[in-house]
């Protein structure tokens, strides 16, 4: 069993839709949770970071962590064509060795 | 521009050849990492260096060596390249204060093909 599971998609939504991206994990000791966005042929860029549990909001993006269910989510409101990318979740126990999901490919259709 | 710089961007090697991937960061980060990214496998940690002078194995270290040359530079060496090492390699760095990790900053990647 992989440490982190993520549905690869692809996910296709109309512009303006709310997007929900999710990851599940098996290691209950994970306490650092991150979401990255990766455009084609580019390096991942950090979107959201959460330490321990709870919610975090930044503009159109909201990250949620449910440690009891070992489940994290990223919500994108008012999605834009520029949001079309692959979204990667990542998590760690110590903050040094992160385990990444395989990524979900998102396309936002104008 | 501040960030993580990787060289080269592309490389084709023959089986058995060796090469070194270079990485440098100018953000004064303590920690540096090498990941490989393969379709369907996601990003997997090869080696990391939590601070200058230390290195540790990650999830997939076999066939690789690393050197933390100084605080800025962290290189990855393939001693005898194999087709299974065909991948996109990313270097990253991160800063930490206590328990707070500020997330990775990634380089733009090196696309390596071993034939």
In short:
The complex is a heterodimer of chains A (110) and B (115). With 110 residues, chain A is an all-beta fold.
What topology emerges from the helices and strands here?
The complex is a heterodimer of chains A (110) and B (115).
Chain A: E1 4-6, E2 11-14, E3 19-25, E4 32-38, E5 45-51, E6 54-58, E7 61-66, E8 71-76, E9 85-92, E10 98-100, E11 104-109
Parallel strand pairs in A: 2-11
Antiparallel strand pairs in A: 1-3, 3-8, 4-5, 4-9, 6-7, 7-8, 9-10, 9-11
Chain B: E1 4-7, E2 10-13, E3 19-25, E4 31-38, E5 42-49, E6 56-57, E7 64-68, E8 74-78, E9 87-97, E10 100-106, E11 110-114
Parallel strand pairs in B: 2-11
Antiparallel strand pairs in B: 1-3, 3-8, 4-5, 4-9, 5-6, 7-8, 9-10, 9-11
Describe it.
In chain A, the strands form 2 sheets. In chain A, strands 2, 4, 5, 9, 10 and 11 form a 6-stranded mixed sheet that branches. Chain A has a 5-stranded antiparallel sheet with strand order 1-3-8-7-6, with no helix packed on it. Chain A has strands spanning 4-6, 11-14, 19-25, 32-38, 45-51, 54-58, 61-66, 71-76, 85-92, 98-100, 104-109. Chain A has 110 residues and is mostly beta strands. Chain A has no helices and 11 strands. In chain A, a hairpin with a 4-residue loop joins strand 7 (61-66) and strand 8. By secondary structure, chain B is an all-beta fold. In chain B, a hairpin with a 3-residue loop joins strand 4 (31-38) and strand 5 (42-49). The N and C termini of chain B lie far apart (35 Å). The mean pLDDT of chain B is 92.
The separation of the N and C termini of chain A measures 38 Å
Radius of gyration of chain A: 13 Å
Structural class of chain A: mainly beta
From the alpha-carbon coordinates, what is the Rg of chain B to the nearest angstrom? 14 Å
Low-confidence stretches of chain B: none
Strand content of chain B: over 45%
Would you tell me the overall average pLDDT of chain A? 93
Oligomer: heterodimer
Number of helical segments with 4 or more residues of chain B: 0
Largest sheet of chain B: 7 strands, mixed
What is the β-strand count of chain A?
11
Q: Can you tell me the residue ranges of chain A where pLDDT is under 50 for at least 5 consecutive residues?
A: none
What general form of chain A does the structure show? globular
User: What order do the helices and strands of chain A follow?
Assistant: EEEEEEEEEEE
Tally of strands of chain B: 11
The first-to-last residue Cα distance of chain B is 35 Å
Mean pLDDT of chain B: 92
Shape of chain B: globular
Helix amount of chain A: under 10%
């Amino acid at each position: 069993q992989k440490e982190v599971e993520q549905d690869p998609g692809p996910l296709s939504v109309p512009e303006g839709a709310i997007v929900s991206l999710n990851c599940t994990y098996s290691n209950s000791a994970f306490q650092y949770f991150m979401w990255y966005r990766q455009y084609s042929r580019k390096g991942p860029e950090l979107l959201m970071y959460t330490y321990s549990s709870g919610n975090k909001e930044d503009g159109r993006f909201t990250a949620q962590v449910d440690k009891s269910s070992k489940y994290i989510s990223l919500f994108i409101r008012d999605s834009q064509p520029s949001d079309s990318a692959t979204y990667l979740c990542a998590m760690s126990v110590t903050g040094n060795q992160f385990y990444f999901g395989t990524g979900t490919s998102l396309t936002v259709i104008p | 521009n501040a960030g993580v710089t990787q060289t080269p961007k592309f490389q084709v090697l023959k089986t058995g050849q060796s090469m070194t991937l270079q990485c440098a960061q100018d953000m004064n980060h303590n920690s540096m990492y090498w990941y490989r990214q393969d379709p369907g496998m996601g990003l997997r940690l090869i080696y990391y260096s939590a601070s200058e002078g230390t290195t540790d194995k990650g999830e997939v270290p076999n066939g690789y060596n690393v050197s933390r040359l100084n605080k800025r530079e962290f290189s990855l060496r393939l001693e005898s390249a194999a087709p299974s090492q065909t991948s996109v390699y990313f270097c990253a760095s991160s800063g930490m204060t206590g328990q707070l990790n500020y997330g990775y900053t990634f380089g733009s990647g090196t696309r390596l093909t071993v034939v």
